[in-house]
Amino acid sequence: MSGKYGKRSKDGRDSMRGTKGENKFGGRGGASSLAGVPVAVGQRVECEIIGLTHEGEGVGRVEGYTLFVRDALPGERVRAEVLSIGKSFGRGRMTEVLDAGVSRRVSPPCPIYDSCGGCQLQHLGYAEQLKWKRRHVVDNLARIGKLPVAGETREMIEGSGEGERPPVIVHPTIGMDEPWRYRNKAQVPIGFGDGGLIGGFYEMGSNDIVEMDACLIQQEENEETVRAVKEAARLLGVSAYNRATGRGLLRHVVVRHARTTGQRMVVLVTNGRDIPHAQELIGLIRERVPGIASICQNVQTAATPVVFGDETHVLWGEEVIYDEIGGIAFAISPRSFFQVNPEQTVRLYSKAVEYAALTGTETVVDAYCGIGTISLFLAKHADRVYGVEIIPEAIEDARRNAAINEIANVEFAVGAAELVMPRWQAEGITPDVIVVDPPRKGCDPALISTMLELKPERIVYVSCNPSTLARDLRLLEDGGYRTVEVQPVDMFPHTGHVEVVCSLIYKGLE
Ligand code: SAH
Questions:
Q1: CA distance 334 to 326
Q2: Sorting pLDDT into bands at 50, 70 and 90, what band is 5?
Q3: Ligand 1 centroid vs 289 CA: distance in angstroms?
Q4: Among 4, 33, 367, 498, which is least packed by CB within 10 angstroms?
């Protein structure tokens, strides 16, 4: 998953809950036995689970061999059927928990948890999920970043070559008090079922769409909107897109809900421009969806799993809806990247602001700024903020957001951060603080080099991928920075994802 903006959402979701078509048991069809591998495909084995992958699979050990077992939890001894094997690891399916040990297994409240795949951790108690997310961050920092972490054993950081530097503090994950019903956006694939048009999620490991009415991590308003749109489409005989033939009209229904204003948006993603009975459809949606402020159409005719096409227009109402985070208003257009968990976003951005330690006189760069969310958060506390982002529409939104909030000390540029930053450097812009919030693949090496040349006093790194974060922190450390604090934030409860914000300080200034 590379992009966070537009075509793919930050957390890679392509349905109301599910990650499209990903086969968790991938690699089937390989050899059924391999020299030096103690298990064979089809065999039932007992294994101890010693860890959890970020995909939520249990990491099992059978005679020293690693077997990833979905649904199995750390601390358990399970029986698993081997589904695929490779030289260094294999995959299995849990058939039985033999000994639950110290695991914190709970019964997943969602009735479709097993077939959906959108959540990976519902079977683990929430407090334990938060611990595992922190553990995942610590492991990456130690293994990939070779960083000494406070409170962790020396063995983990052996070979790090660190002298007497103070260890990195990794705080406990900031979780939600009520970790359900948090998502403000749903992307629902539409298809054919027994009774006609259906919409829900891609069944795990297949391209089949399963009808779904309830999703426990989705805000109820979104469920209500999706239900109303599906009913209206059925009533008017709108055809569903058929992924095999490329015929049929309605491909996706994308809905958003802004909790602070109550506004809702519906985007109909269609295979062609013409919508038969468009006015009746709009009328029914307006009648049945409270708070509806925007109905848009996006045309996507390509045979691709990518949700949106290039053409978007308003069918009724506004082209944006408004939401507020931490007292700042944001206009959100159909394809804008906007954090999906507003409650946790405030916590994440507030940490970023805290780590930036601004006094009001600083020049700040916000690289990978999206629609300017972090930039606007920082602007109140800085002299001047420069935001850079590769997607032109996002920068249009960012400028509009600055204007709505009457924030004048921000400037936005379109382009790749790694190309724009050297330009700014040439223009004599010397940031005191640089904030980066890159997509999953992390920062471009050229950007890291520029940061090391600019030598800001502080760097704040916001990341959705602990492994690329750890890689980049190592580069920054080698270039003279010290990672001080790391704060994991649970933006996506019950999924394997974890968001992290880190503070770094230039050693020469200590
Ligand atoms: N900070 C924002 C957005 C973070 S998402 C927020 O919290 O809302 C990461 C952003 O980086 C996306 O908007 C993506 O379009 C952008 N991006 C990806 N590659 C980039 C690059 N090379 N230069 C600048 N921006 C990039």
A1: 22
A2: very low
A3: 32
A4: 33
